[in-house]
Design goal:
Layout (H helix, E strand, L loop, with lengths): L1 H26 L33 E8 L20 E3 L8 E6 L5 E8 L7 E6 H6 L7 E9 L16
Length: 169
């Protein structure tokens, strides 16, 4: 029991690290600037490469999300991988497998990035089925459903900045 709990905590920590790298790579995150440092805008003569500004994503869909957990843990998903309720994944009816989606809980404005790896949800009044961990991040696990906004995220180009972390076998 203790070994299983340690593995789950380790997996959550590794997923959080990978997610942080993903957010940094896709959202142009940078280090905070101290208030006592003067920021001088570059002059037109400065030869600098400017990062493009990210435009706010248009909502892909707004509706009701649900989550699925222990009853499906370990069962094969539509993508062929086993469902892991502690991964940040989701099921969607039409989005391509591997698509990254930002899911925002409209009640408390918490959000999480999930990867589509399954088909669903079965109830037609729901737009997405989230893993247990994703629902927990959104603080919807107690209620079971939540009104959410889905935004499609651009998958980062493969680079040394992002490494998908796995537990050693």
């Amino acid at each position: 029991m203790l070994e299983t709990t340690v593995k789950r905590v380790h997996k959550i920590v590794l997923n959080t690290m990978a997610l942080g790298a993903f957010v940094s790579a896709t959202m142009g995150a940078s280090a905070p600037v101290r208030a006592d440092h003067q920021v001088v805008p570059p002059s037109p003569s400065d030869a600098q490469v400017q990062k493009p500004k990210l435009k706010p994503a248009k909502a892909f869909d707004v509706g009701t999300a649900s989550w699925y957990g222990e009853a499906f843990d370990g069962k094969t998903t539509a993508s062929g991988e086993p469902y892991d309720m502690y991964e940040l994944t989701a099921a969607h009816r039409t989005l391509p497998m591997g698509t990254w989606v930002k899911v925002t809980n409209l009640r408390n404005h918490r959000w999480v990035l999930v990867r589509i790896n399954d088909r669903g949800p079965v109830p037609t009044d729901r737009i997405i089925d989230l893993s247990y961990s994703a629902a927990k991040v959104l603080k919807m696990s107690g209620r079971g459903i939540a009104r959410v906004r889905l935004d499609l995220m651009k998958t980062p180009e493969p680079s040394s900045d992002l490494a998908m972390l796995r537990l050693p076998r």
